[in-house]
Inverse folding.
């Protein structure tokens, strides 16, 4: 059996979604003062950078941005390496998130567990004024009470479907695809 793959966002759709999200962030926060963008590695990092570039283009003012690797905070990973969480903390501390409006960016929101891990990492580094969530694609099926503030595209899926985000920085192209996951029991 072959997997049927459908492109649900091409390069232009991703660009439009990021432009819309940038405008929504600016409107909700009345500009970018006291804001910082943090992307969840890997693709969230590149989306946060693109968003920072878009906000600079719109406002003419740079917004601080950075990335975090939440692997050490995930509940589905073996606990152990305390150095990994210290490395995350050092990177976040450099951004000075204390009392800032943190806009956390991830590529796909599914169960919410990655976002929970990211919030744990943020809280270990200080107390943000608030945390807002931006995602390129929201596919539903939450296991935790997490809701995005900014959504590029809502994509209702079944649990057998998968969404993949490809970005030029890592994959050589920009597109979001959906396909049936054939790895059944």
């Amino acid at each position: 059996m072959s997997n049927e793959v459908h492109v649900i966002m091409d390069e232009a759709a991703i660009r439009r979604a990021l432009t819309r999200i940038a405008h929504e962030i600016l409107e909700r926060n009345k500009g970018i003062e006291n804001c910082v963008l943090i992307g969840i590695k890997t693709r969230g990092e590149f989306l946060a950078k693109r968003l920072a570039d878009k906000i600079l283009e719109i406002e003419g003012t740079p917004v601080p941005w950075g990335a975090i690797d939440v692997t050490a905070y995930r509940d589905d990973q073996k606990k152990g390496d305390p150095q990994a969480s210290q490395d995350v903390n050092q990177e976040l501390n450099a951004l000075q998130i204390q009392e800032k409006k943190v806009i956390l960016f991830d590529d796909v929101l599914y169960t919410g567990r990655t976002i929970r891990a990211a919030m744990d990492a943020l809280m270990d580094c200080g107390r943000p004024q608030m945390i807002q969530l931006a995602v390129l694609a929201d596919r539903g099926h939450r296991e935790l009470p997490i809701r995005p503030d900014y959504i590029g595209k809502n994509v209702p899926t079944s649990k057998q479907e998968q969404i993949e985000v490809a970005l030029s920085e890592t994959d050589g192209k920009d597109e979001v695809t959906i396909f049936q996951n054939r790895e059944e029991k």
Remarks:
- The two ends are 15 Å apart (CA to CA).
- Residues 11-28 form the longest helix (18 residues).
